[in-house]
Design a protein that fits this description.
It is built from 4 helices and 4 strands. It is of the alpha+beta class. It folds into 2 domains: 30 residues; 90 residues, Dna Ligase, domain 1. Pfam families: YceG.
């Protein structure tokens, strides 16, 4: 059987198209619902609270003119005696960060391993690793 040039080009195009569709599908599945559609341009300051039953709070940010922007904040709990490695593991498992090694590298570079304190923190989904660290050490 002789393979024509058109056949091979069509086959190659089909393989490339299916690989792109698979990649897009895989990427859309890795985005957690807590980070989908999060606006990372507006960040709020965390407030440390005593542990509570509420897992989600809604707060109003700035009112500019007649526009009211609402951001969803979720609680993140640092248990007593948790190490930086345990905190990184919890942040990754709850979807706050994608890579715990990047988190730990930044924490160690800034020598912040001992600055984390047990408590409940309000975090905004979609924050960078550096902003997440800053909220947790305040």
């Amino acid at each position: 059987m002789k393979l024509s040039r058109q056949y091979l080009l069509g086959l190659g195009s089909g393989l490339i198209l299916s690989a792109l569709i698979t990649l897009l599908f895989t990427l859309s599945m890795t985005v957690s619902p807590s980070t989908a559609g999060a606006d990372t341009t507006e960040l709020t300051t965390p407030s440390v609270q005593q542990p509570s039953d509420s897992a989600q709070k809604t707060s109003s940010s700035e009112k500019s003119g007649s526009e009211n922007i609402t951001q969803i904040q979720k609680n993140f709990v640092i248990p007593p005696g948790a190490s930086a490695d345990k905190i990184a593991q919890l942040l990754q498992s709850e979807g706050w960060i994608q890579n715990k090694d990047d988190f730990l590298t930044l924490v160690k570079a800034k020598k912040l391993e001992k600055r984390f304190k047990a408590g409940t923190y309000e975090l905004t989904p979609g924050l960078s690793i550096e902003n997440t660290i800053n909220q947790l050490i305040q």
